[in-house]
Write a structure and sequence with these properties.
Alpha-D-Glucose-1,6-Bisphosphate, Chain A, domain 3, alpha+beta, 22 helices, about 45% helix
Length: about 800
Amino acid sequence: MRKKASETIATKPAVAQRFSANQRDILLSAIFSIGLVFAAFYWIQHYEEPRALTQRIDTVTSNIADHQRGIVRDAIDQLGSRVTEQSKSQELIDALQQGNISDDSVLSKNLKRAFPEAQDTKIIYIGNQGIADERSETLRLRNNIEIDMLRKSIEQQKLIIEAYKHNDEWLISFVKTASKRGAIYVTFNANYFEKMLNSLAGNAVSVELIQTYKSRSDSVIKPSAIAYPNVMQSRPLSVPGWTLQIYPQENTVLSLSSDSTLLWLICVLCVALIASSHAIFFLRSYQIPVAEKSPSKTPKSDLEKADPEPSLEQVLAKKLSADRQNRTAKRDNFPAPDGAPPLPELSTEKAGSKNKAATSTISVNSFRAYDIRGIAETELDDNACFAIGKSVGSEALSRSQSKLLLGRDGRLSSPRIHEALVKGLLSTGIDVIDLGLIATPMLHYACQDLNIGNAIMITGSHNAGEYNGMKISLEFKSLTSQDIQTLRQRIEAQDFTSGNGNRTSDSIEQRYIDRIIGDVVIAQSLKVVIDAGNGATSNIAPALFEELGCEVIPLFCETDGNFPNHAPDPTIESNLSALKAAVAEHGADLGIAFDGDGDRVAIVSAQGRCPSADQLLMVLANDIVTRNPGAEILFDVKCSRLLPELIVDCGGRPTMWKCGHSYMKQKMAETGALLGGEFSGHIFYKDRWYGFDDGMYTAARLLEILTLSGLTMDDALDSQASLVSSPEILIPVADERKFAIIETFTENQKFADAGLINIDGLRVEFRHGWGLIRASNTGPAITMRFEADSESSMKRIQNDFKELLLRIDPTLVDSL
């Protein structure tokens, strides 16, 4: 025993030495591993990432340069074709044969009207001896360059295009002979092309137009600042000696730069893992492992056995019962908008009174997800509108706001609602600026122009004439569902302030028009038919597009709240039949239709096609992302899956979101998206605009894109891929039942191998298509939509949805 003890004691130093050596090796391994991590991080940060960034910048700038060159080439070719077409006019040729043509002649005026965007147009007479003849009108030309251009055109018998400086400004002239007796000059200020280029480039790149003659190079269009000249892309143009130079801007570089935060986090995580793992080994060198006990198992009791699964009808009934109990229990906290008990009747006593004496009641269902809406003569009577005015005014004042803008559409009930609402507002002490009969986007613009973020728009939007409603903004934000319910709670509690507000009037129409025509460039005059549907855009839309340079044919552009020609909803194709006929009759380039309050737009092409809103979004998104690489584009759950695919292909970031204008505007502000759109026709521009839905501005931007690219609407549609899709399907369901049905559908679906998107109802993404079911926020209905690679695939998805929906509620069979 003594021997064994002494052997044990003798081995302790050896063990200690072995542990010490192990610990040293562990420390060295940790230091070496952490050093490798930092070396790799340094190499990626200072060598690999800059090289990759330069490559990304070069690729993006090259793509933009190719696109810019194509657009500029097409614009020049179009202008050249228009000049050539004018030179072939037989009337002009006959007049030149007879002698001189003065600047005030009918032909000269016609030439000027043909080029409203030009700075100057001239018809030059050429005598028998050419430009040297004594009857030559070369004195009417600006300088020797224009004389030389005329000589070249005579000698070469072709269109001559050159840029030159005159009185310290750059001009670009197109010269083409008209027979042997004359020529026409069309001269543009270089600023015209500069504005076009800047509009195309946005804030992604800066553009320079260089003209080279022999050994001399001049900047015809020079950017205010040039960044990153080392990655400049140069592209020759079709005009001899012209070159386009593209420089990426700071924001493009920043959008392409990788965020090093993730790299740092990975580095820190690696170091932490290395340190912790080595620390564990280090500590274990002192420890003796012990056996682990396995946990004991306890049998399940009979109480844990599952109850039989209830039927779908029982689940739905239970949900409806629970919803009713929950609304009753939580009425004072946050009552739900649908199915709650009616509010107490309102009195006209002074604000702050808690007297619940009644003269009429407020319809609970009128307070919807993002606006107030109902049947005008029953749900929005004078007493209700007076109370809503008091509630909105009190809420605005509680937020330290003192002024509110007010607008209305042309519905027959709008003047009555307007007066009752004004009385309620003024009674709280808030000042009201009345803008009269305007479109909804004009009210949003007025908020920006007048810097007043509080507004009420009285409008029934696209609904039938007996409906009306209110779209409300406070502090430059559309009200959320909770905000709408807060207004309802104020009415219920009669929690109103008291005061005497002032009412003034203002006009926003011309300022709205001037703002758009100062922003949008339409490269050539188009013939368009405007169908205002007797709505709020009737007076403003024709004037706007005429000032943009279009030939406008008005259709139903007289405000009439009866809507005698068709319902004010242009997204229903049957409502566009008259517009289709007018486009065909007049040979128009495009038909444009607006809804009742002008925040939605629909298009009819020259061939009579009616693209859906997501197809329009594809055209608009392609333009935005091309000019703003990496831009985020927002769209709702009803849109085609082709839309996000296109956005990604163009280099953008697609984001799917909820339906509803207030939800979309909030998400636009949150994400910084430059463009957003709904399948219902609401399109939101943040690029060069303010982020609200505006049918007129969207139509103007669409015309800009088409004319600058040289495409027709039909060309743009032909370039898009296509899938089989259904229209939006509406199934009437009572407001108090629709949300419970959707919840039951979601919980009981068993779609195998499918992706589920539940941001708004349920969208089920299959490999060959998708289906959507959701509760409408604007009416007592469930909405559905489907899209697939083929008709049979779509029918299969529809049948799967139908089968589950009818198991939940067999009474819906008639609607399906």
